[in-house]
Amino acid sequence: MIERIKETADFLKKTQPLQPKTGIILGTGLGGLVKEITIEKTIPYHQIPNFPVSTVEGHQGQLIFGTIKGKPVMAMQGRFHFYEGYTMQEVTFPVRVMKLMGIETLIVSNASGGLNPDYKVGDIMIINDHMNMFGTNPLIGKNMNELGTRFPDMSEPYSHELIAKALDIAKKESIELKQGVYVGTAGPTFETPAEYKYFRIIGGDTVGMSTVPEVIVARHMNMTCFGVSIITDSGVPGHIVEISHEEVQQVAAAAEPKMTKIIAELVATI
Ligand code: HPA
What we know:
CATH class: Alpha Beta
Structural class: alpha/beta
Number of strands: 9
Strand order of the largest sheet: 5-8-7-6-9
Order of helices and strands: HEEEEHEEHEHEHEH
Oligomer: single chain
Distance between the termini: 30 Å
Bound molecules: hypoxanthine
Strand content: 25-35%
Number of domains: 1
CATH topology: Rossmann fold
CATH superfamily: Nucleoside phosphorylase domain
């Protein structure tokens, strides 16, 4: 496994000249960040040795190397979801590659259902903690000792420093941000009313189908993480309505300019 990760990292180092310190997973709601990237090189996933290929609607599969406000970044346009049938190792493979390329900070975004009754559809939440409800863990199996310890600490999954910086930026830009706990589930079904209720009772503020595996693997390798979530639908009793993937995409697209602003400014400080 480690050889495959090294092979991919070496290929990417040879294919383009930048040495980014920040990696970004352009999940739902962050697609617009591409416009803020001065692109040096794009590489479709299918041209990258050992990379899985993404299939889900609304996600293109390519790596983007470029700069945001002068800072070199490596961005994934299109991520791999567990519900697509990829293994946890495949879902998190690009994060492993990022680490071997010298990336120290991982920024992720996603769409989610709101569990906290104070949240409205269209709100943006900084993820300050998460719960892994995937029913599995990407670190199960032989530990890659070269990359991290067998029993990784998870006391600060999302960097307090980056959260403070993002809150500062939001204040200056008059953007309202929530802050809370993201519950990660396998999907692909959205939650039943009983499941939304349960995730609220156990302490969740939002629920979605990504991010947790990538952040677990990033923390295993001691990468600093920052995550944001767009609330695209409500899981609050009395407010639950039928939803579709298309609606999720539409709400996320509407929140995109605010999300983009915060992340672009944040990257500039790293
Ligand atoms: N549940 C799970 N994942 C989601 C949701 C949701 O309500 N909305 C967007 N992604």
